[in-house]
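Field guide to reading this record: the first block holds the primary sequence, the second block holds the structure written as discrete tokens, and the final block holds curator observations. Each block starts with its own label. This record concerns ABC transporter permease, catalogued under organism Sphingobium rhizovicinum.

BLOCK 1 — SEQUENCE
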Amino acid sequence: MGFAHIPAGLGESVARHREPVVRILYNGSFLTAGGQVARAAEEAVTEALPEIAANQLPNHAVPASRVRRLAVEATPLGNAPSSFEWFLGLLIFPAVLHLIAACVCAMAIGRELKGKSLSEWARASGGVAPAMAGKMLPYVLAISGWGLAWLLYLTLARGWRIEGSILLIACGQTLFYAATAAVAALLVAVTSETATALSASAVYAGSALAYSGATLPLNGGNAFARTWSNVLPLTHYIALQMGQVSGQAVAAAVAPMVSLMAYVVIAGGGALAFIMVRARRV
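BLOCK 2 — STRUCTURE
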């Protein structure tokens, strides 16, 4: 999926104020896996640089300004395969289901708006948290079921292979769609308008695949693109899914799972708190 070209005399060049270039070349046909390789290689080279440079001058400290002289250049390669079904099938279906989940959950909560407020629903339901969970759980389970069915179709019917744990991907999917539902509930609670919440859901969920780093590279992207990518829940799910597809260790899925769980807790908790505060004021 990729490799790094390290020029001869790298440490000596850095220590003597030269500007060597470490080139990382990755398979652009499978951009998700290739991008993961490129980012990991870039981080590894950057972290190892101070030690590499210091070994060339064992009796002298190497200033940070010299360390920063190293340039890491990532370049996508070609080698187009005969079929993009595996690559695109793993990305497009979760992105479409993400958009559907965002819109249907926003609509489900939006139905309970009365005079731009969820206060009446909060009082009538008794417990707001169980009411929110019961309102969105059927959609989360149904969409998760569609996602699992698509994975089984790709693997069993089409013959593609997942090197890691399909069970972990299935659990990540459910958590991902629960996170999407929590964000939708928060948008409705904050905006108090179904149309506005649906528009916001369409904007962030509809553009999520483009900013996930799966189809368009984020290497060298500006601060906005990188920040927005990290904010979107799809980015973390794609990292989990593609990591398991390519056979990453289970430990590598911990960070994406924790990130997805944070959406459920923070966005869901924010929606719950917002609704309860408004209910007390009326």
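BLOCK 3 — OBSERVATIONS
The first helix runs from residue 10 to 15.
The radius of gyration is 23 Å.
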